[in-house]
Amino acid sequence: MYTIAPSTSADIGSFKIEVLLTDGSLSSIYAFTITVVNTAPTFSSSLTAQNVTLTNTIAYQLPTFSDPEGNTLTLDTMEKGQSYLPSFVSFDSNSWTYKINPMASNLIGTTTTIEIVLSDSVLKSAFYFTIYVNNSAGSIPNTAPIFASNPED
């Protein structure tokens, strides 16, 4: 009996195996192919949309993530379509937590999509969640500026 136990990304691929069967006088060859696949890394649960009120701060911790083959993973995060996070979002790679703190009134009513890319050095998987910035009483309203006094006085 032979055991095949792929353990690294170098083991990924298709391998033709030939077995020679013989009884001493007659022989035959039995051939088959073993295909070793790599499964993309994934999160343990879905990412969830985040709603935040202007001038408030919320934290969003990512669900656990893993690679089915146990490969070491890297995580990259950015605003979708960009190579960086928006200025009101930061990410702590020690706790896998986003800090979301919108302060600019022009963010009211906007939705920002955050992209997370997990890689096991062979396959990459992209995941997304959205951040919606809303306004509430007590927050900075988006109104035109007014003079507190007449500048000609």
The proportion of strand residues reads: 35-45%
The profile of the biggest β sheet is:
4 strands, mixed
Number of strands: 11
Secondary-structure-derived class: mainly beta
Rg from C-alpha positions? 27 Å
Helix percentage range = under 10%
Text of the CATH class of the domain at 42-134: Mainly Beta
- The largest sheet has its strands arranged as 4-11-10-7
> The CATH topology of the domain at 42-134 is what?
Immunoglobulin-like
Euclidean distance between termini CA atoms: 98 Å
CATH architecture of the domain at 42-134: Sandwich
Task: Tell me the series of helices and strands, N- to C-terminal.
Answer: EEEEEEEEEEE
- Shape descriptor reads rod-shaped
Q: Helix count, per DSSP?
A: 0
CATH superfamily of the domain at 42-134: Immunoglobulins
- Unreliable stretches (pLDDT < 50, length at least 5) are 137-141
Mean pLDDT: 87
Summarize the structure.
With 153 residues, the protein is an all-beta fold.
Keywords:
4-stranded mixed β-sheet; Immunoglobulin-like; mainly beta; 153 residues; 3-stranded antiparallel β-sheet
